């Protein structure tokens, strides 16, 4: 029997297309993502596809394949993001070498963390104490080294200091 770790490009492409067609497996904010029955049925379809190539394939095999593809995609994505942060010019930004990187582009919004909202002000501006939450169950005020931190029940932190001192002071 041939080594099952190596799939042809056509097979990988087809597998990814099937995976893409079922957002219940990859789109975290989808209502279907929490539907176990639907996910089980879809995994069964992917297992059926994989048994054509690897007769002993089961759900674990499929999950590991997906994790492998997504992990490789994340590594390439991380390289791109790091090259952008390094200040490289547009010509020098890392170009993915993973041949199926473009096929997994539909998962990119699931891989990149959402931009956090900074409610801290830079030095030299007025200090103000405000929380990102409209409704706060409780709020604890801590002052360390002239840094006022407000920790809410949802663990949102608001500080009245420069950004670098905020987390250090709040976490003490």
From TrEMBL:
Signal peptide: none annotated. InterPro entries: MADF-dom. Coiled coil: none annotated. PROSITE patterns: MADF. This is MADF domain-containing protein. Residues 14-112 form the MADF domain.
């Amino acid at each position: 029997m041939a080594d099952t770790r190596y799939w042809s490009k056509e097979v990988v492409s087809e597998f990814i297309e099937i995976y893409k067609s079922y957002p219940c497996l990859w789109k975290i904010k989808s209502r279907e993502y929490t539907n176990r029955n639907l996910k089980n049925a879809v995994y069964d379809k992917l297992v059926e596809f994989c048994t054509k190539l690897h007769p002993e394939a089961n759900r674990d095999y499929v999950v590991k394949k997906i994790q492998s593809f997504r992990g490789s995609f994340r590594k390439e994505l991380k390289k791109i993001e790091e090259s952008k942060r390094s200040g490289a010019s547009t010509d020098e930004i890392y170009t993915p070498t993973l041949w199926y990187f473009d096929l997994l582009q539909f998962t990119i919004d699931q891989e990149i963390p959402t931009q956090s909202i900074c409610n801290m002000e830079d030095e030299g501006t007025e200090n103000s104490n405000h929380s990102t939450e409209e409704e706060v169950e409780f709020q604890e005020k801590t002052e360390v080294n002239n840094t006022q931190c407000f920790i809410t029940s949802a663990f949102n932190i608001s500080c009245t200091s420069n950004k670098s001192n905020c987390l250090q002071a709040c976490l003490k």
